[in-house]
Design brief:
It is a single chain. The protein has two domains: 189 residues, Up-down Bundle (Growth Hormone, Chain: A); 217 residues, Growth Hormone, Chain: A (Up-down Bundle), CATH 1.20.1250. It has 16 helices and three strands. Strands 1-3-2 form a three-stranded antiparallel β-sheet. The longest helix is centred in the N-terminal third of the chain and has 32 residues.
Length: 427
């Protein structure tokens, strides 16, 4: 019986998520620029193109997770997906900035989307594979910390490299994703005990989903729908915040993006502590606290006048914004609220996957990881459309997202309050 978390192994496993986060950080930052300026596509087409990664993930990640549960090979059941998918991801990603014609560009991006979706779920499923139940929230905090570092590198270093040459961020991402996959392959050994000898008897994704919904205890269904609703609420802020900052707060788009960066920064800083908090007080309570925090923050952003939200609190060089042209960068009241939102989001996001995988046995961790991505990814497709429709109905009043998002968070909170299972078990 393990008495403590293996920090070294968990950080090494985090390189898998680190590599993916670098790729998606660069992809989301610069592919829209290529689509708009290089290929002269309309904003509507660009918006649709940027949802293709979620559509690919929705179709591929859940069944691949179930497939990895059933796979038996000399290298294990997860690593083969990494060894096939990661090199293809790296090569395709490095080629994205090179094509001069749209069909070749689409071929490169499509290959990236399909290959990345192919190995993400098996690699994420490795965390609960190698981590005892009582340490999975802490381990997921470390994994997400590594992913957050990858996103920061993608945006900070990628931005500098893009100014030198637009291909350089993609080549950096290509090298890092292959290097990260190599680290996982060399240093992570899969357990050989798969928890169930007869793999043919294991239910697949659809059967597992039906089992969750038909179970007398609705904890699994409530958690999955809670994930769906809180991601819809979060997508309102994540997708439309720069437009909210421009149209409601009167900020430049660049300053709006800088203001928003406070949230992921403090998500990263609270990623590891949130896992330890859940280890002390329980996952359901920690997630519920996060939902309450983020709901209060969003309501305060809605009711507080724009002028008050831009009140300077303290100098903050990296993520502060200039309140006057040429002035010092300041942490504003809005920034302080986003600090709390980042912490609340860490409480929620770090502990949800461990709850899902602890609803099942070791033999079906990949399948249930796939179910987690099924609901979160479907929400990522639905959310921006629902929230965009609401903004349009409100006469392009972007402040409405700060009223709509708390509603979805409260629905998720109500669902979580009825959850009875998914806490850590001592092995």
């Amino acid at each position: 019986m393990a008495t403590r978390l293996n920090y070294g192994k968990t950080f090494l496993l985090g390189f898998g998520f680190f590599g993916l986060s670098v790729v998606w950080g660069v992809y989301n930052a610069f592919v829209p620029i290529f689509l708009s300026e290089k290929f002269h596509l309309s904003p509507l087409v660009v918006g649709f193109f940027m949802t293709l990664d979620n559509i690919a993930a929705l179709l591929i990640q859940p069944p691949v997770g179930a497939w990895s549960d059933r796979l038996r090979s000399p290298m294990g059941r997860r690593i083969p997906f990494l060894l096939i998918g990661a090199p293809i991801t790296g090569v395709a990603f490095g080629l994205i900035p090179l094509p001069a014609v749209l069909p070749v560009f689409v071929a490169c991006t499509s290959t990236l989307l399909l290959s990345a979706a192919f190995w993400r779920t098996p690699v994420i499923a490795l965390m609960p594979d190698i981590t005892p139940s009582e340490f999975r929230s802490q381990a997921n905090g470390i994994i997400n910390f590594m992913g957050g570092i990858g996103t920061i590198i993608a945006l900070q270093t990628g931005g500098l490299l893009y100014k030198m040459n637009p291909v350089f961020p993609f080549w950096l991402g290509s090298a890092l994703v292959i290097l990260s996959a190599l680290v996982v392959y060399l240093f992570i050994e899969e357990p050989k005990d798969y928890g169930q000898a007869d793999r043919s008897a294991q239910p697949g994704m659809i059967e597992s989903l039906r089992e969750v919904f038909n179970n007398e205890d609705k904890s699994g269904a409530r958690i999955l729908f809670a994930i769906f609703f809180w991601f819809i609420g979060f997508s309102a802020v994540d997708t439309f915040f720069t437009l909210y900052a421009k149209n409601h707060l009167g900020l430049h788009e660049g300053d709006g993006a800088t203001l928003l960066s406070v949230l992921p920064l403090f998500f990263v800083l609270f990623a590891i502590p949130s896992g330890y908090i859940a280890g002390k007080i329980g996952r359901r309570l920690t997630i519920s606290m996060g939902l309450v925090i983020i709901t209060i923050v969003l309501v305060l952003l809605y009711i507080t006048p724009a002028s008050a939200l831009l009140t300077g609190i303290a100098p903050l060089p990296l993520v502060g914004i200039p309140l006057v042209e040429g002035g010092a960068r300041m942490l504003t009241l809005a920034g302080v609220l986003l600090i709390f939102a980042g912490a609340g989001w860490a409480f929620i996001n770090i502990n949800s996957l461990p709850m899902i995988v602890d609803l099942t046995s070791a033999a079906r961790i990949g399948t249930f990881t796939g179910l987690y991505y099924l609901f979160s990814t479907f929400s990522a497709i639905i959310g921006p459309n629902v929230n965009g429709w609401a903004i349009q109905l409100a006469g392009n009043n972007y402040n409405i997202i700060m009223l709509i998002a708390p509603g979805f968070m409260l629905i998720a909170l109500w669902l979580m309050l009825g959850v009875k299972h998914g806490e850590a078990t001592v092995q």
